[in-house]
Amino acid sequence: MKRSILACLSLAAACCSAAAGDLKVGSFTFAVGAPWVAKVEPRMMSAGGFTRPSKDGTAPVEVDFYHFGAGGGGGIEPNLKRWQSQFKPGEDGKAPAMEREELSVGEKKALIVTLKGTFLSGPAMSPNKTPLPNYAMLGAILQSAEGDVFIKVTGPEGAALAVKDEVKAIVKAAFAK
Predict the structure, then answer these.
(1) Domain count along the chain
(2) What is the CA radius of gyration of the chain?
(3) What pLDDT does 18 receive?
(4) What is the reported pTM?
(5) What DSSP character marks residue 94?
(6) Residue 10 covered by a domain
(7) N or C: which terminus of the chain has fewer CB atoms within 10 Å of its end residue's CB?
(8) Residue 6: inside a domain
(9) Residue 12: band (very low, low, confident or very high) from pLDDT cuts 50, 70, 90
(10) Are 50 and 38 in contact (CB under 8 A)?
């Protein structure tokens, strides 16, 4: 009995701490290494995701990858508006400012965006959202004839912004494959 309980606990621990690795999404393969940890249960509609545990006990940084096929996902501008709407409007009633940066590798292009503020966490269609102040989102949209790939990184502002260069490197490497 004790052995089977220990075996179950060991199996559960192994599942919950799955190593990071390669993730195929659409026509891209993303290599995501430690200290990222593969999510056991990705978010709804996600092709997969990873978390990066915090060092100070705060919430982890999460990254999720989405692909809806050729012509799917609603296009670039509608997704940018959707991402902005996932933040609480400012006192002026406006969505938070969005920084945009184009990333090119040869002929291939990605749009990288940064948003900061109070993130409204929760399922996409749910009216029940949890406000998370001082959060940031890094978004990346990789254009492809097989359908764009959408990457969404969220977490406490300092931690999320600290992984921006790493996210860019993951995107560049996916273009090179």
Answers:
(1) 1
(2) 17
(3) 47
(4) 0.84
(5) P
(6) no
(7) N
(8) no
(9) very low
(10) yes
